[in-house]
Amino acid sequence: MSTRKAIFVTGGASGIGRAIALYFAERDWFVGVGDVDEAGMRETLGMMGHGFSYQHKFDVRERADWDEALDGFATAAGSRIDVLANNAGIPLGGSLMENSTEEIERCLDINLKGVLFGAQAAYPHLKKTAPGSCLLNTASAAGIYGTPGASVYSATKFGVRAITESLDGEWAEDGIKVRSIMPSFIDTPLLDHNPNARANEDIRSRVKEAGLEITPVEEVAKAAWDAVHGEKLHTVVGKTAKQIAFGARWMPGRVRKQTRNSTRPLGK
Questions:
Q1: Which of 5, 186, 206, 244 reaches 20 to 30 Å from 215, CA-CA?
Q2: Is tRNA processing a UniProt keyword of this protein (predicted)?
């Protein structure tokens, strides 16, 4: 087994996944990225300062593809995987009645099934490198308190939070850490997408209009590193996320009132 630690990051072609991959690469880890965007993955690998890297094109919704991706990465990394960053996910905004069946199913499949399948596939690899190995799930501030205009997305991120807490209990005796990061609005290309097929305004515009903070993606990458090496189960990232977490815990009535009085839901 190689002595160089190894992390595999899904959604590694851009955004948070790319930032996590680069952050670990800078600290001399062997880094693998998985995504459906082959060109984006090549760009990510090209930005790394060393050659200890690997890419694999696959769809996180396909359980068998997970085994192929992680087995290939483990072989390339010297028979080890220390961290799986279960990061791949897609946004979906707008009122529930605006969301199509296809949009709902796609969001549920990628954001929830993808995380569960990744955990299943990663388990034997993480057990091999335990104690100290880690499953790192990307949740969201939308998994702290339900976001108006993002009921489906919020449901998936509450689910990721629950998966993290469940597996933290299940895998403790194996010495495998299970952690989540819970960022708010992060400065990535996803903010420039429309929240749903019927919307005519991108997410970034809505966030700015609402006066919410957009957090630099590098902050999330550092939080991921800290989560993998720390003891905190959920790591909240960004000013907005921290405010939501504080309010939901200590002032739930006020958070509910603010939520109900919000001018319009994201994506409308």
A1: 5
A2: no
